Amino acid sequence: MLTFARTAQAAGQPWATGWLPETARCPWLVSFREPWKHTTTVPHLVLILGEWATNMNAETIRIIDTIARDRNIERELLINDLEQAMISAARKHFNSLDAEEFRCRIDPLSGEMHLWRADEEGNFNEIPIASLGRIPAQTAKQVMIQRFREDERASILDEFSKRVGEVLTGTAHRYEGGALVVQVERTEGFMPRSEQIQGEQFHPGDRVRCLIKEVREDGSRVKIVLSRSHPDFIRRLFEAEVPEVAEHIIEIKAMAREAGFRTKIAVSSIDSKVDAVGACVGVRGSRIRNIVDELGGEKIDIVRWNESSQVLIANALKPAEVEEVSLCFELGRATIIVREDQLSLAIGRRGQNVRLAARLTGWDIDILTPAEFAKSLETLESTIRPIEGVEDGMLDRMGALGMISVFDVEEVGVEVLQGDVGMSEEISARVAEVCAERAREVAEQQQREKEEEEKRRSEEMAAADSLLAGPETDAPAEAAADAILGGGPVETGSNDEEADDGAGAPGSEVTADVASEATEGSEQHEEDPSAAS
């Protein structure tokens, strides 16, 4: 029917026009579709060139308004793009390279379009749009699509650049080389493997709550980097779940995170009536439970902030109980003394607790038992005290400064010993030299002890493996013992020589003794029948 209608139209039959679609009825019709793939309502911008232009101008303006609203692009910018597309089409039609030779204006209210061309005298004369051919119309279409894409890209870059650090909810789309592609509003963002929580897996259509970490231009695309492992993601979740944090009544002072495993967060309150830790936990843990569920079961330790580094470090190492904290400000090191039964709890699984506490407080943390601490002090005192000129007051000041081992004295150097401890130049140089020698000896001794300990553990493991595997046993001896204990006959050799050879074996001697005792007992039983009663 379509072919028949086209033939009738070519023959001049007016009725055939109604049978044809707009693209077939008007050879100057250009339909702009896409490039906006990710929307349910894709507007089709229709530009009619020729006699249909007057009837469709209002529709063109309406579609431009729709694109401007849906794509967050300024309406004036879209109209300007359309004017530039028409100028490109005119230059293509007249084969002109002068960009100033043509002018175009589209009325932003009525959509009426006018196109002018300058003559040799510089006067601009209007060009009938119907005079342009199909190839210039196609050029206008391509220019318009390209400029619309650039406008949308600039709009996305401007919009999401202002939202860096914001948490939003998207939809999981697909995985590309380990990176998760997430549909975020009217564009796509990607979450690299390094920004994902370890062990977390999403399926197409799953809800993904993530943080906008970075927005940048990548060639002709806008790349939006999303993250679920960044510490600020935890901060934004607390702001969403705890109103006091969003209102800045409770302040998050510091945070340390190992995504997917554990997070430590230090909080403080500016209102004495508000308990910072209790408000973050919520009634029966309701607030913190929502955050933990969002993170897939990641553990969160909420620590009470304190301006004192000693108190803060003790709080950061909880649930372990700390006996004493010694700080060395010159080295930025904190020595923590805990009981033997609290040592593994303070260190944590694979050192996780002490590692997060160190990152939270900003101190290098060494954990010692009271015995190790006393031994370290004893080694330091026995090394320094024999030096001539060293007084008890100097040793006390060194302890107050957090120098508890020969390694600390070696690291702080001569200047600290002179300025803070009060030693002379000669004494400080001698102390530093002696402590350096002693530190090497202690390090070698510790290395030997470590090797011996590893060797002992390997031997114990080998012994345990051999014990689990079972020892090699003598099968004939076991068979004889089983026969005696089970009351069965004992198998003997086929000749006397084999019996004599077997008599020398320990198992054979035991068997012979037991057999002889059994024979004597049976003879006695026969001689004295009353013994049975």
What share of residues is helical? 40-55%
Mean pLDDT figure: 78
Unreliable runs:
1-56, 489-533
Estimate the strand proportion.
15-25%
User: Mind telling me the C-alpha Rg?
Assistant: 44 Å
Reading side by side through the largest sheet, how are the strands ordered?
8-7-6-9-10
- How far from one another are the termini? 124 Å
Shape: elongated
Q: How many strands, which pairing sense, and closed or not: the largest β-sheet?
A: 5 strands, antiparallel
Q: Number of helix segments?
A: 19
Extended strand count:
16
Determine the structural class based on helices, strands and strand pairing.
alpha+beta
Describe what you observe in this structure.
It is a single chain. Strands 8-7-6-9-10 form a five-stranded antiparallel β-sheet. It is 49% helix and 19% strand. With 533 residues, it is of the alpha+beta class. The longest helix is centred in the last third of the chain and has 45 residues, at 425-469. It has helices spanning 2-10, 22-25, 53-71, 75-94, 134-161, 231-241, 243-246, 276-281, 286-294, 309-316, 343-347, 352-361, 370-384, 392-400, 406-421, 425-469, 475-486, 496-503, 506-527, and strands at 29-32, 45-48, 102-106, 113-118, 124-126, 167-176, 179-184, 187-191, 207-218, 221-227, 250-258, 262-269, 299-304, 324-328, 333-337, 364-368. Mean pLDDT is 78; it is low at 1-56 and 489-533.
